[in-house]
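Hi R.,

Here's the chain you asked about this morning:
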Amino acid sequence: MDLSPKQTEAWLALEDTTTNEILYGGAAGGGKSILGCAWHIWRRTKYPGTRGLIARAVIKDIEESTLVTFYEVCARLGYKAGEHYDYNSVKHVIRWANGSVTLLKELKDNPADPDFNRLGSTEYTDAFIDEAIQISSKAFDIVNSRIRYKLHQHGLVPKILLTSNPGDGWLKEKFIMNSYGESVTLKAYEKFFLALLSDNPDEDFKASYFKQLDKMGSDYDRKRLLYGDWEAVRDVLNPFASHYDPLKHESPLAVFRKDKQLIISVDFNLNPFAVTFSHLWKDQTGYHCHIFDEAAIQNGSIPAMCELIKSRYESQLITCKLTGDAMGSKRDITQRDNSSYYSQMLRALNLRNTQLVIPDSNPTHVNSRADVNWVLEYFDDFKINPDKCPESCRDMRTVQCDAFGSIIKRNRKDLAQRADFLDTARYLVNSFLYEWVSRHRDRK
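And the predicted structure, written out as C-alpha cells:
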C-alpha cells in the first residue's frame, strides 16, 4: 500500500521510540482516516495479542465512516473478514486471527459519566481517535492514561494518533496556537503534521474533490476544509456583541484591585460551570467596569467552584457581591434541605444573603443584547483582561444570534455556541448596570 510523502513522514513518527502524541490534521480528503486505519491494522497484525482502540465522539460515526475506510484499507492490504478478522457489531469488537483485538469506543461527554468510567479499566497498546476535534480534552486525557497494554513485551512506547479537520477548541490550542493567537511550542513527545488535499495520492480524487470544496459558500469552511487552514477565522454574521471592539474593550489594565469591591458572576452549567470576577466603581473620570479574571469548573461542582473562589479571593469575600444565573435560585433535590445552588454557595463562601444580587428571572436574549451593546458603545470604561479572560473575550467576538435575536447554543461542542462566559457578562450587566443603561438611554 503506497502512502503519500506526508503520510510516510507521519508514519515514521508513529513508529519511532520518542513520539507519543501525533496530530495528523488539516484539509478534507488529506488521507487522515486512511493513515489511521492503515497504522492500526499494521499494529494489530505485526504485534500478536495486542489491543488497540479506534474511537470517535459517537459510535455511529465510526460505523458509518471510519469503519468503511477500515474495510477498504483491509481489502487493499489483503485482509479478509472471516479469515483474518471478525467484527462483532453488537459489542463493537474486532478480533484478529493472531489474538489481537480492536475495540471501537464512543468518547462523547456524558453528564451521567463525566469521568468516562464506561471505558472500564481497559488498557490499550495504542489508540487512533478520528475527528478528535469533536471530543473533549478530558476524553483525550483519559484514553491517553490507558495506553500501557503489552508495551514492554513488544518494545513499544505509548502512541496515540489524532486526526481532524481544523477547528477551534482544545486540539487547536494544544498543537497549533493558543487562545491569544500565539503558535504553540510542541513538547518533545508531540508532533503535528498538516494534512492537505494535495497529499492524497489519488490524482482523480484530488481533482474532483477540489472542485467540490472550492464551491463552498463559507469562506471559513473553504479555508478549513480545502486548504487545511487552522488559523481560519469563523464567519460571525450576526454577533451578539455587535459593538464589541477588541482594541477598545480588551486591556491588560483590567486587574484585581484590593481597594475595590469584588463582583462574582456565575453561570450554572455542567460543563463548564463558569465564573468571572470584576470590579465596578465610579470616580472623577467616570464609571468603570473591569472584568479581570475567569475560571471554569467541569462537572458543575459547586464545592469545587467555591474552593477555587476562596483560593483566589478569600480576603475580598466579606464585602463581595454574588450574581449570575437566576436558575441557580431553584431548589436542588440532591441536597438534604433542598437548598438552591446559591444557598449552597452562600454557605460555602460564608456570605450573607444581602450579598446576593439576583433578579427574579434571567434577561431575555433580545433585551440583554440591547443592554450589553449599549454598555459597549456608551459606558465610560468597560474593559476585559485578554490575558486572564481569554474565554470571555472569545465569547464577545464569536457568539452569534439567530434571526430572532436569540443566542445560538445548539451545539455544545462548538465553542462559539457555548456562550457561558458571555452569559456571566450578561448577568453582570443585568444586575449592576441595567439602571445605568436605562438612565442614560433616556438621555440619548
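The CA atoms of residues 62 and 230 lie 24 Å apart.

Let me know if you need anything else.
M.
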